[in-house]
Amino acid sequence: MAVTFEFEVGKGFHFTTSFAENFNLEVEGDRVNLPDELGEGFIQEVYLDNGIALCLHHYNLQQDFILRRRLSSHTEGLTIKFDCRRSPENPLFQSGSGYEVEFGTGNFFSELVLPAGPSVNFLVIGLTRNVMLNMIQPEEDSYIANTIRDNESFVLHEAMTTEMERVLKQLSAINHRTRLAPLLYKTRAQELIYLLFSKLITRDVKSSVNIKQADAEKIYKVRAAILSDLSQAPVLQQLSATSGINLTKMKELFRQIFGESIYNYYQAARMSHAADLLNDNTVSEAGHQVGFTNLSHFTRLFEKHHKIKPKRYKDKLEMAANRNKPPNRRR
Questions:
Q1: pLDDT recorded at residue 85
Q2: Which of 132, 230, 310, 323 could covalently link to 302 via disulfide, CB atoms 3.0 to 4.6 Å apart?
Q3: CA 304, CA 40: separation in Å to the nearest integer?
Q4: How far apart are CA 107 and CA 109, in angstroms?
Q5: Rounded CA gap, 270 and 261, in Å?
Q6: Within 10 A of 256 (CB to CB), how many other CB atoms are there?
């Protein structure tokens, strides 16, 4: 049976304090350790002098753990979740592929299901709208400025990049023995925010609208349907009907949340999955599993997305695996 922790983000909220009170634990410094029956590891909060708060989750679970954020009227707080776990998980509203970034207001209801077993490593950055705007200083009438300043509720989604993963791991390695730890926390957190917004500002989105809880849930259902079978191209009318959202509104909100059209998102997810499949399959097998009957067509699209042919990509995977094999020991 899963262990559930419910909380509500608001002014003066401290995650570690609330977690400790819920499980009858003590906060030691800036950390609270997980109860023994739940797992091993800790949750840590770090408050920086520039108005940024960091909440780091590092643990291995013995039971499934559910983090449930309740619906709130507090709309000034923003959160950015950098998830560095490769295993499948539930993002903000519906199940997805994990390994992603979610940026938005902290007033949405959300449920994050963390399965027992895999190592949990993710970071939530909390700050206010004014702190964010002063930090990134976007162009006055830009899509990003309007979203942060004017939208009462919003959520934006991006895939984690290898650069983000590198910085998150560096930030996660900081501890009380690290020299100039406060400065390093601040530097790494700002670098993560920079890497996120360097992607967000390139989005081809002209306008931004307020996103209600119900609409966000429907759009994440659309994404879940797309990812459920990458061998089939999405049919927009069918997605609209099954998710219960108007076709025009669905396309508009999907582009706003995910930064691209439904079809382009599908193709990117398809090619990323194909790259994963090449670990254990031939090029033709991987292409077939993501819906290609023409190997040449698959090769062209894979190279367009990954900047490398699938055969060359598979060769590099095999070379890396051979390098990591332990040497044979002669008796």
A1: 57
A2: 310
A3: 43
A4: 7
A5: 14
A6: 23
